[in-house]
Amino acid sequence: MLNHGKFSVENIIKILFLLITAIVVIIPFLWMIMTSLQPSSAAVLQRPIKFPIPPAFSNYLKIWSVEPFGIYGINSIFVSLTTAFLQVVVAILAAYAFAVLRFPFKRVVFLFVLAVLMMPSQVAIIPLYSIMTKLGWLDTYAGLIIPFAADAYGIFLIRQSFLSVPRDFVEAAQIEGMGHGKIAFRIMPHLIKPSLIAYIIMAIKWRWNDYFWVLVMTSSINKRTLPVGVVMMKEVSDGGTQWHLLMAATLVVLLPMLILFLCLQKYFTNDYMSGAIKG
Amino acid sequence: MIHAKSGMKYRRREVLTAVLFLLPALSLFLVFKYYPLIDNFRISLTNWNFFSEHKTFVGLQNFINIFSSDTFWKILKNTFFYTICSTFISVVIGFFLAISLFRMKGRLPRILKTLLFVPNVTTASAMAILWMWIFDPDFGLSGQIFSALGKASPRWLLDSDLAMWVIISLSVWRSMGYVMLIYMSGLSGINDEIYEAARIDGASSTQQVFRITLPLLKPTSYFLILTMFIQAMQVFDIVSVMTGGGPYDSTNVLNLYIYQMAFGRSRAGYAAALSVILFLILLLCTVIQQILSRKKEESYA
To answer: Rounded to whole angstroms, how far apart are CA atoms B96 and B258?
Structure first.
């Protein structure tokens, strides 16, 4: 396992450091799961706390009736998938124009897009809120999705990948009579698949984990997503927090991204992104 | 980018296609990025309260009020304290994780790499709830451990000296794996021969880390520190959930303060002025980042 196979002081320190960090990463999850399987509130509020035997898996069913988690879950899935889909379509269109097409003022227009990277929505939340009010988009799906449909980072990333595709591919497709739309959506995505998948996952993750925008722009249960819903569950029960149920709910919020990560790990951890980030 | 030669003309159809392809992105950016940003400057010069029809122009009064408010300076200090500590600690831990893992081969290091990155995909608001339960002084993990030791647990989130550190710990927990990953890809770019030469010259492995690895990873470090700094400056979720800025604003940060002013007290003009300040700080960081990355390109050229 080790480079030289020797157990020098240095290697022992390294391994100790790694193991301690790994334990620090794991303990919060274990504590969450352990709590989430406690049979009742009374069982949680004990010192020392007992190991939940038998584990109360029923907590994972109960949470759906305590808070409208079903609605939150559907909202989360719908909003993050739709936004990611739109982001990819809009980004492919723009990236194709920047990478393949020739048009005047390309450099200026590209700078116009890049500058957006410096404008997180948080620094203009007041005018954004009043725009949403005027559009009638407060507490609607449109308000959660459309403002995020264009993502400068995605345009930049996909443009980088498109630039790495040899021009011959585009020209060959054109000779075969394909239009730019067809080339952009039928040919190019296949040629940059790994970075495209990596971007899609990242886009889903961003929207799934978002708290701020949803908190500001929604006011009813019907449009809230899980990250906000789980906090509401905590706040509603103020004073008598049902920690066993709350921890079950917390795990439900975290789980989809954890599963996505463990299944598609290489797209999270590979260097598809880093080149572009560092550029 | 090569400029079109004077003789060359753009094909009309191609230009039209480009306009069509760029239209969705550009119009969305115009409506949801550029216009709000400019409008924010305008609102910051008024005393608007969200409800009134017209906005009374008050000049720089909001900024004067902000700069003469003790709360603002306290919150600005907190924001920088949080930002600097969480960035610095994450980068240091992430760096040591990367060099510890980098040369190991086999299955265990790969599992560790995966495991250490897991916190990075967690939802901040949900993790903040878990963190509250871990640091709960009565029956949470902290309460359990301290009571097993026969002591009383500190009341972490109610203690103005400790609360910020609890928040920073969650931030570090979530980001150290990301730092590790970026450093590992930086490390794989370093030529092994450099180390070999150093070894022949009798450099110890500690010397190698500080004399070779760190200097060569300077561009990676700049990138990491500045992007993480910019992100941390905008922290909201974990502070809002865990302490709401309390106790007595000791953990309050700029973004949360903006939110409280705007949506808690309807002081839209004042909050917009605070947003302008936050934006200018972020802009300054980005400019520094741009200058540094340009330097990096020049040194490679």
So the answer is: 36
